[in-house]
Design brief:
The protein is of the alpha+beta class and 238 residues long. The chain has 3 helices and 12 strands. The protein is 14% helix and 31% strand. The strands form 2 sheets. Strands 1, 2, 5, 7, 10 and 12 form a 6-stranded antiparallel sheet that branches. A 6-stranded antiparallel sheet has the order 4-3-6-11-8-9. It starts with a helix and ends with a helix.
Amino acid sequence: MTTYQKTALALALATSASANASYTFTSFGPASWGASDATVGVAGYTIENFEDVNLVSGLQVGVVSPNGNLAPTSTLPNTFKPSDDGFGTAFTIGGGGVWDGEHGVINTRTNQTFSYGESNSWGNLSFYFTGGTSSAGFSVQQMDRDAEIYVNGTLKGLVSSLAPNFVVNGGRQGYLRIDASGGDMINSITLRDNTPGTNGFSDGYMFDHVAFKAVPEPATMVVLGGGLLAVLKRRKSR
């Protein structure tokens, strides 16, 4: 494993994955592009559409590439609009990589395109979920080569096998949802190019409509717990 790959996995490893961790992968193909939250199973989730640089609470994005990294952040360096790409039309193929709205996030340290041939500027992108989540989903565009999916820093398999409804080529792939079970949590999700000879880099991806089940903050849990105790006390007094 190269130094860059080790760095990518270290950034993605928010917590150690449980030995008995169980995850289910559900994919929706290009024909479902732009479908409702209910259709892709994320109704009621917290949604990030990348329409501005400020991410929703509970989500961070990080990128690792040979030409530079984007440390996990809740504030992106730029917004990315596919139609503004000055290097080509890869992110508008097939109708475009935006699930909804006008913007998305791509796997570069600036969230802006570089020359498509500048392979060392296209890196491994990770989503980080503060406090963890039991379920998360996102759309994928322009995955023209197979990629590996890591959950909590542990390789779970290839997109081609985990998302069989995806067509791995240019254009829209679809939507992927990952669900944890047995009390396990998803702390991070990373995608890494699996093309031999690329050292895990060089392919460009675009993501949109990141959805996740938000975990209540400790203060919220205290308030909820206090409310439950009050209800129990009232019932007991009766």
